[in-house]
Design a protein that fits this description.
- This protein has a single domain, classed as S-adenosylmethionine decarboxylase.
- It is built from four helices and seven strands; from the N terminus they run βαββββαββαα.
- It has helices at residues 17-28, 80-97, 116-119, 131-150, and strands spanning 4-10, 35-40, 46-51, 59-65, 68-74, 100-101, 111-112.
- Strands 1, 2, 3, 4, 5, 6 and 7 form a seven-stranded antiparallel beta sheet that branches.
- Helix 1 crosses helix 2.
- The longest helix is centred in the last third of the chain and has 20 residues, at 131-150.
- The two termini are 21 Å apart.
Length: 157
C-alpha cells in the first residue's frame, strides 16, 4: 500500500506525445532528472519510466493511444514534498503540451490519493471526500517508513 497518483490525460494527438513528454521532463526537470527508459507496459503499450528522486520508484507514463496518457507513481516512499513536486510536474506537462487531465474516478481508480492534484489543497479534497483523513494516514505511513529506514526509536503507542 502507498500513496500516489494515477492520472489520465487527453491530448489532441499529433507527433509522438510520449517522446515530447520525455524531452520536456529532461529539459524542465533537469535538476531532479536521474534516468529515463522507453519500455512497454504489461499490455505491450509504449511507456516511459522516469526517475526523479534517488529513493523514489519510477514514474510510469503510458501511451494508451495517440491521444491518451496515463501517469502513475507511488510517492509515499519519498514523502509529501515529492508528492507535491510530482503533482506540479504533471500539471506543467499538461500546460506545456496541451494535455487535459481527467477528473478523479473511483470506479477506474484514477486520480490523486491525497486529492491535491485536482483540489489544489490536500485538506480541501473535493476530489476525495476523505482527503484530510487520507493525508493524515499517508503522513503516518511516510513517518513509519522513515523511522524504520533511519533506525530511529519507535514512539510509544
Amino acid at each position: 500500500m502507498g500513496v500516489g497518483l494515477r492520472l489520465i490525460g487527453r491530448h489532441e494527438g499529433g507527433a509522438d506525445l510520449l517522446s515530447r513528454v520525455d524531452d520536456w521532463i529532461r529539459q524542465e526537470c533537469r535538476e531532479a532528472w536521474m534516468a529515463a527508459a522507453n519500455v512497454t507496459d504489461a499490455d505491450g503499450r509504449p511507456a516511459l519510466q522516469v526517475l526523479l528522486h534517488p529513493t523514489a520508484e519510477s514514474v510510469e507514463i503510458v501511451s494508451w493511444d495517440p491521444k491518451t496518457l496515463v501517469v502513475s507513481a507511488k510517492t509515499s516512499s519519498v514523502g509529501p514534498g515529492y508528492h507535491l513536486y510530482l503533482c506540479d510536474v504533471v500539471k506543467r506537462i499538461g500546460e506545456a503540451l496541451s494535455v487535459a487531465w481527467d477528473p478523479p474516478d473511483a470506479e477506474r481508480q484514477t486520480g490523486d490519493d491525497t486529492g491535491f492534484f485536482h483540489a489544489g489543497d490536500v485538506l480541501e479534497g473535493d476530489a476525495r471526500p476523505d482527503a484530510a483523513e487520507h493525508a493524515g494516514s499517508a503522513f503516518a505511513e511516510v513517518h513509519r517508513l522513515a523511522v524504520g529506514a533511519l533506525g530511529l526509536p519507535k514512539e510509544e503507542e
